[in-house]
Specification:
By secondary structure, the protein is mainly α. It is built from four helices and no strands.
């Protein structure tokens, strides 16, 4: 039995195992899109007006483009989908009719869930 062959084989197996583990960690990190986010401030805007809602929409879309730029996408369509979905999520979370109208006009489709007007 040659000791050098045994050590080489063990080294090769260990390298393969650590390589596979490292790759799986990278894939999981890339798949977790919720890990990256941006806060968009709009305290200075009146989002009940069309102009204020449009300005907020532009801020949200810009933030979504930055967040989505951190991920590798196979195609430009995948990146565009990421930006659209992130923007739609933020618009839905804010839940303001004027902002939803801007989103719908810009995307020719409704946000994922129709917001309900705030009762006051």
């Amino acid at each position: 039995m040659r000791p050098s062959t045994t050590f080489r084989l063990r080294g090769l197996i260990a390298t393969a195992i650590f390589g596979a583990l490292g790759l799986s960690v990278c894939v999981v990190a890339a798949a977790d899109r919720s890990a990256e986010s941006r806060t968009v401030s709009f305290a200075d805007l009146d989002i009940s007006t069309p102009a204020g809602a449009h300005m907020l929409y532009m801020r949200i879309r810009s933030a979504a483009q930055v967040v989505c730029s951190y991920y590798f996408f196979a195609t430009d369509a995948d990146k565009a989908r990421c930006v659209r979905d992130a923007t739609a999520g933020a618009v839905t979370k804010i839940n303001q009719p004027a902002l939803c109208a801007v989103f719908n006009a810009s995307n020719r489709r409704a946000a994922p869930s129709d917001p309900v007007s705030h009762a006051r």
